[in-house]
Amino acid sequence: MLTIALSKGRILEQTLPLLKRANIEISEEELSSRKLILNTNNENVKIIIIRATDVPSFVQHGAADIGIAGKDVLMEHGAVGLFELLDLNISKCSLMVAATSKEMLDQQTLKIATKYVNCTKQYFQQKGQQVEIIKLYGSMELAPKVGLSHCIVDLVDTGNTLKANGLKPLEHIIDISSRLIVNVASYRTKNKQIRGYVSKIKGKL
Ligand code: AMP
Questions:
Q1: Is the CB of residue 156 below 6 angstroms from any atom belonging to ligand 1?
Q2: What share of residues in the chain are helix, strand, coil (percent, to 5)?
Q3: Backbone φ and ψ of 178, nearest 5°
């Protein structure tokens, strides 16, 4: 039995065609159900549906053999105890610093609102800039408008969300895409099976 951890939304939508090419398919009925464990056309493969930020933990602890998670989520998690086997080149975007203007970044201690505390800390540490990080779980764009922070660090795709909230993308931290991750022990014990699926997905990327 092979368990694959996925999250609903963007990643699931873009992963389904890749899995299909590896001959793993999930019926419409399963997908539209509220079940958290989905059957596939292959009785040896099941899919678990969890929050995107939980995917690395499920894989790390062996509750799932394989998972698909954004590089942003992996960097925040630390991704210890798992292998990042493949860049799937899906759900692409950038992690960026955004503010109303460039001048806003000229602060002795820059106040930053973000969900990405570890990535932000690391980026500004490398730059040697003193920061105060305010951890938020959503609606980051609001923070500079109401004086909670000088800027934000968030994922940017089209830039429309920033624009709609009067913010500009100012500094590019890193390119983000979804990665296929594997539990270290599973990679050893189910090596042939996992490598078979990975090569089929990879061959079609
Ligand atoms: P956009 O307006 O297209 O720049 O999208 C920005 C919004 O979508 C932000 O709220 C981001 O957190 C979210 N977002 C954009 N791309 C991704 C992605 N690949 N994965 C998860 N969230 C994303």
A1: yes
A2: 40, 30, 30
A3: -85, 145
Which residue has its alpha carbon closest to ligand 1 atom 6? 156
In the numeric block, the tokens 């899995």 are attached to: 19
**For ligand 1, is residue 114 a contact (CB within 6 Å)?**
no
Range of the domain at 129: 93-175
Write down the mean pLDDT value for the chain.
96
CA of 156 to the centre of ligand 1 (A): 5
Q: Are strands 2-6 and 131-135 parallel, antiparallel or unpaired?
A: unpaired
Which 8-state DSSP code applies to residue 171? Answer: E
The model's pLDDT over 1-30, given as tens digits with 9 standing for 90+, comes to 999 999 999 999 999 999 999 999 999 999
pTM: 0.94
Ligand 1 center to 189 CA (angstroms): 36
Residues 6 and 83 grouped into a single domain:
yes
Residue closest by Cα to atom 18 of ligand 1: 91
Residues 12 and 83 in one domain: yes
Atom of ligand 1 nearest to the CA of 11: 20
Q: Is the pLDDT of residue 115 over 70?
A: yes
pLDDT tens-digit series, residues 88-108: 999 999 999 999 999 999 999
Structural domains in the chain (count): 2
- Match 């009785």 to its residue by tokens: 43
Q: Which of 75, 155, 167 to mutate to test the pocket of ligand 1 (most atoms within 8 A of CB)?
A: 155
